[in-house]
C-alpha cells in the first residue's frame, strides 16, 4: 500500500493523542474528520508501527492494546466504577440511564451522591470525597477523551460505551458463575 | 462437642462448600449426598472415599446436624450465623428486636438510679455493663438490618424475571412496611425511642455530674461517660442507617426506578463488587488504554510499591567470585626504592627525556610503578626538569603512551 504522507495532515497530533490513550470522538472535529476520511491509510501506518487503530461505530477511534500499565489499570477501574455508579444513580432517579448518562451534565452534587452510595467501593480505589472524585476521575476523563467540560461540570462522550459494552458482556459470565454455585 | 479451633479450621478448609451450604440453607435442607456432591465439585482432586471422610468430619464436629426425625441435614445455627456475618448476607430482623432492647434499657436505667442512690458500687457496675451490652446489640441490629435491606434491594433490582412489579418487589414492599415504617415511627422525635434515649442520657449525665461534684466513685466515671457516648452514637447510627435504607428502598417502592437491562446489570455488578471485592470481576470490566508514554517514564508511586513488593521475594544468585590470581611480583623483580632511583637519575644526569630513560632503565617494572616513579621524579627539584614542547610516544610493557616528555632543563639546548 502506498501512503501519501502529505494527505495525513494531522498525523503528528493524532498519533500523539492516540498513543497517550486519548479517544478521538466526533467532538474533536478536525481530527475525527481526518481519521474518518483517511481511515485506511492511518490504520495501515499505525499497525506497521505496532499499534492497532480501532474504530467504533458509535463514533470514536482509539488504540487497542493488550497490556496496560499498572497506573492505567487503576484509572480505568475508577472510570468503570464511576460509570456504573452513574447508571445506578440515574435509574434510581427514574431516568432512562442510557440517555441520562450522555445528556446530563455531571455536577458536583451528582458526584457526591454516587460517592455516598458506593463509598465502600470508591474507598478501595483511594477516593474519599467528591473533590477526589472530580480530580481523579472527571479530569482524567477529559484527558482521555471520555468526557468534555461544560463550565465546572462535565458531560460524558461516546467512548464510555467501552465500559457499557463490558457491562453487557459480564452479564453472561456472572450468570454462569451463579448457576455453578447452586 | 463444639471445638472452636476445629470449627475454624473446617471453615477455612471447606469454605467453598460451607458458603454454598449457607446459601442453600435459606431455602431448604440438604442430604448427606448433596454435601458429598458439593465436595466433589469444589475439591475435584479428592477420591470418593476421602470425600466421604471429609463430609463425615463436618458431621462429627457438629457443623452439620441432622434435622429432627429425618436424615436431612442443616447447618448448625451458630455456624450459619457466623457465615452470614462473614458474607454480610443477613436476614432482615424485626422492629421487636430493637424495641425489646430499648425497653430493657429503660428498666436498667431505673435500677441503675436506685443502685446509685444506695451507693451500691457492685450493682452499679453490673448495670452499666448490662446497659452497655444492650446498646451494642441495638447498634448491631441497625447494621445488620441495613445490610439485609441492601441485599433485598440488590436482588430486586437484578431480578430479570418477567413478573409484575408487584410480585418482584414483594420483599421490598414488605421490608418497607414491616421494618422501615415502624422503625421510623419508633425513632421519631416524639416517639418512645427518643424519649427513652433522652431520659437515659439525662440520668447518666446527672450521675456523672454527681460523681464530679462529690468525688465519690471516681473510678466509675469513665465507664459511665463511655456508656453515654455509645448511647448517643447509637442514636446517630440508627438515624443514618435508616436514611440509607430508605434511600435505596424509595425508588423501588415508588416504582420510579427504571429497570432497563443496563441498569439491571449495573446493579448486579456493583452488588458483586461490594460482596466479593473489586477483583477479579473488575478485570473483565476495564477497558485498556494505550499508554506508550508511560512505559518509558519513571514509575509512579504504585509501580514502585509493586516493584518493591517483588523485591521481597528476590533471591540473590550466589555470585561466584573468580579464583584469585596471584598478583604478587616475581621475586626477582625488585621494586626500586624512590631514593635510589632519584640518586641514579642524578648520577647519570639523564639527558634524554625522563619517560624514555625510566622505560629503558627499568624494563621489568609494572606500569603503575613506573608511573609513580615518573611522577615523583618529574617533581623532584634536584633533577630540574621541564616539559618539552613537542610530544613523543613510547611503548611500555605493551601500553602505548603519548606525552610531552620531561627533560632536564637545558638538555634540549645541547
Write up what this structure looks like.
The complex is a heterodimer of chains A (182) and B (414). Chain A has 182 residues and is mainly alpha-helical. Chain A folds into 2 domains: 5-64, Arc Repressor Mutant, subunit A (Orthogonal Bundle), CATH 1.10.10; 70-177, Arc Repressor Mutant, subunit A, CATH 1.10.10. Chain A is 60% helix and 11% strand. Chain A has helices at residues 11-19, 29-37, 39-48, 70-92, 97-103, 108-117, 119-124, 130-144, 161-181, and strands at 24-25, 52-56, 60-64, 147-150, 153-156. In chain A, the strands form 2 sheets. A 3-stranded antiparallel β-sheet of chain A has the order 1-3-2. A two-stranded antiparallel ribbon of chain A has the order 4-5. In chain A, a hairpin with a 2-residue loop joins β4 (147-150) and β5. Chain B has 3 domains: 4-87, Winged helix-like DNA-binding domain superfamily/Winged helix DNA-binding domain (Arc Repressor Mutant, subunit A, Orthogonal Bundle), CATH 1.10.10.10; 95-285; 338-408. With 414 residues, chain B is mostly helical. In chain B, the strands form 3 sheets. A two-stranded antiparallel sheet of chain B has the order 1-2. Chain B has a two-stranded antiparallel sheet with strand order 3-6. In chain B, α7 runs parallel beside α11, α9 (170-186) packs antiparallel against α11 (221-253) and α10 (192-214) packs antiparallel against α11 (221-253). Chain B is built from 18 helices and 6 strands. Classes of the chains: A mainly alpha (182), B mainly alpha (414). Chains A and B meet through β3, α4, α7 and α9 of A and α2, α11, α12, α13 and α14 of B.
Amino acid at each position: 500500500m502506498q501512503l501519501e504522507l502529505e494527505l495525513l495532515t494531522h498525523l503528528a497530533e493524532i498519533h500523539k493523542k492516540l498513543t497517550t490513550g486519548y479517544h478521538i470522538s466526533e467532538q474533536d472535529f478536525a481530527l475525527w474528520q481526518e481519521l474518518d476520511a483517511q481511515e485506511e491509510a492511518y490504520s495501515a501506518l499505525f499497525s506497521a508501527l505496532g499499534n492497532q487503530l480501532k474504530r467504533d461505530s458509535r463514533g470514536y477511534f482509539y488504540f487497542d492494546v493488550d497490556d496496560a500499565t499498572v497506573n492505567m489499570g487503576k484509572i480505568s477501574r475508577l472510570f468503570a466504577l464511576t460509570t456504573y455508579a452513574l447508571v445506578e444513580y440515574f435509574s434510581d432517579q427514574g431516568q432512562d440511564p442510557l440517555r441520562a448518562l450522555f445528556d446530563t451534565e455531571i455536577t458536583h452534587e451528582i458526584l457526591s451522591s454516587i460517592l455516598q452510595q458506593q463509598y465502600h467501593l470508591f474507598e478501595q480505589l483511594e477516593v474519599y470525597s467528591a473533590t477526589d472524585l472530580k480530580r481523579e476521575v472527571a479530569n482524567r476523563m477529559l484527558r482521555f477523551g471520555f468526557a468534555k467540560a461544560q463550565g465546572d461540570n462535565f458531560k460524558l462522550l461516546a467512548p464510555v460505551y467501552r465500559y457499557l459494552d463490558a457491562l453487557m458482556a459480564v452479564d453472561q459470565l456472572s450468570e454462569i458463575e451463579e448457576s455453578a454455585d447452586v | 462437642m463444639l471445638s472452636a479451633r476445629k470449627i475454624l479450621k473446617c471453615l477455612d478448609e471447606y469454605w467453598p462448600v460451607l458458603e454454598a451450604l449457607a446459601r442453600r440453607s435459606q431455602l431448604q435442607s440438604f442430604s448427606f449426598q448433596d454435601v458429598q456432591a458439593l465436595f466433589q465439585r469444589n475439591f475435584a482432586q479428592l477420591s470418593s472415599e476421602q470425600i466421604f471422610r471429609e463430609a463425615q468430619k463436618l458431621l462429627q464436629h457438629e457443623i452439620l446436624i441432622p434435622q429432627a426425625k429425618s436424615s436431612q441435614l442443616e447447618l448448625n445455627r451458630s455456624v450459619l450465623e457466623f457465615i452470614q456475618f462473614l458474607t454480610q448476607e443477613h436476614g432482615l430482623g424485626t422492629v421487636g428486636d430493637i424495641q425489646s432492647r430499648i425497653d430493657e434499657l429503660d428498666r436498667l436505667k431505673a435500677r441503675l438510679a436506685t443502685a446509685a442512690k444506695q451507693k451500691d458500687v457492685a450493682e452499679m457496675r453490673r448495670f452499666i455493663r448490662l446497659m452497655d451490652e444492650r446498646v451494642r446489640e441495638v447498634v448491631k441490629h441497625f447494621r445488620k438490618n441495613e445490610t439485609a435491606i441492601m441485599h433485598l434491594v440488590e436482588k430486586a433490582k437484578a431480578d430479570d424475571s418477567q413478573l409484575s412489579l408487584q410480585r418482584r418487589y414483594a420483599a421490598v414492599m414488605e421490608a418497607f412496611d414491616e421494618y422501615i415504617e415502624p422503625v421510623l415511627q419508633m425513632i421519631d422525635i416524639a416517639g418512645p425511642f427518643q424519649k427513652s434515649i433522652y431520659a437515659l442520657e439525662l440520668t447518666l449525665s446527672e450521675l456523672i455530674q454527681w460523681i464530679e461534684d462529690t468525688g465519690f466513685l471516681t473510678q466509675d466515671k469513665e465507664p459511665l461517660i463511655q456508656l453515654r457516648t455509645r448511647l448517643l452514637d447509637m442514636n446517630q447510627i440508627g438515624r443514618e442507617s435508616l436514611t440509607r435504607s430508605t434511600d435505596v428502598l424509595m425508588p423501588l417502592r415508588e416504582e420510579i426506578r427504571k429497570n432497563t437491562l443496563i441498569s439491571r446489570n449495573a446493579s448486579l455488578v456493583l452488588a458483586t463488587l461490594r460482596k466479593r471485592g473489586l477483583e477479579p470481576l473488575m478485570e473483565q470490566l476495564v477497558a485498556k488504554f494505550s499508554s506508550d508514554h508511560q512505559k518509558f517514564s519513571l514509575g509512579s508511586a504504585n509501580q514502585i510499591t509493586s516493584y518493591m513488593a517483588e523485591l521481597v521475594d528476590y533471591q540473590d544468585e550466589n555470585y561466584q567470585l573468580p579464583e584469585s590470581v596471584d598478583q604478587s611480583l616475581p621475586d626477582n623483580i625488585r621494586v626500586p626504592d624512590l631514593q635510589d632511583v632519584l640518586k641514579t637519575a642524578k648520577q647519570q644526569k639523564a639527558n634524554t627525556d625522563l619517560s624514555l630513560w625510566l622505560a629503558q632503565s627499568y624494563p621489568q617494572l609494572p606500569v603503575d610503578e613506573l608511573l609513580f616513579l615518573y611522577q615523583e621524579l618529574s617533581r623532584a627539584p634536584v633533577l630540574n626538569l621541564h616539559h618539552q614542547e613537542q610530544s613523543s610516544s613510547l611503548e611500555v610493557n605493551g601500553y602505548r603512551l603519548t606525552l610531552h616528555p620531561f627533560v632536564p632543563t637545558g638538555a634540549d639546548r645541547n
